[in-house]
Amino acid sequence: MLELAKRFINKECIIYTFENHQLTGVIKEVTDGAVLVEKNGQLEAINLDYILRIREYPVDKKGKKKSVIFD
């Protein structure tokens, strides 16, 4: 998961965790045990062991972020 998470550095992503919780933000750094995510100028560290899925934030044909995301 560590090597895969590094592919998303500097991209806006949706991060899904075990607790049915999802976080949205730009992945700034990936280390051995955590992912550093920036949202609204605030940094948050997420334990890499609790991440189930990382998904790049979907955009439409014009490059705008989609307002409704179905999973």
- Structural class, judged by helices and strands? mainly beta
Largest sheet geometry? 5 strands, antiparallel
Rg for CA atoms: 12 Å
In helices, the fraction of residues equals under 10%
SSE series: HEEEEE
Tally of individual helices: 1
User: What's the shape?
Assistant: globular
Mean pLDDT over the residues = 87
Number of strands: 5
Q: Into which percentage range does the β-strand content fall?
A: over 45%
Q: How are strands sequenced across the largest beta sheet?
A: 4-3-2-1-5
How far apart lie the N and C ends? 21 Å
Instruction: Show unreliable segments.
Output: none
Topology readout:
Layout: H1 2-5, E1 12-17, E2 22-30, E3 34-39, E4 42-47, E5 51-56
Antiparallel strand pairs: 1-2, 1-5, 2-3, 3-4
Task: Name its key features.
71 residues, five-stranded antiparallel sheet, mainly beta, 1 helix
Describe this structure in words.
This protein has 71 residues and is mainly beta. The chain has one helix spanning 2-5, and strands spanning 12-17, 22-30, 34-39, 42-47, 51-56. It has a five-stranded antiparallel beta sheet with strand order 4-3-2-1-5, with no helix packed on it. The longest helix has 4 residues, at 2-5. It is globular and about 35 Å long. The model has no long low-confidence stretch (mean pLDDT 87).
Please summarize what this structure is:
With 71 residues, this protein is mostly beta strands.
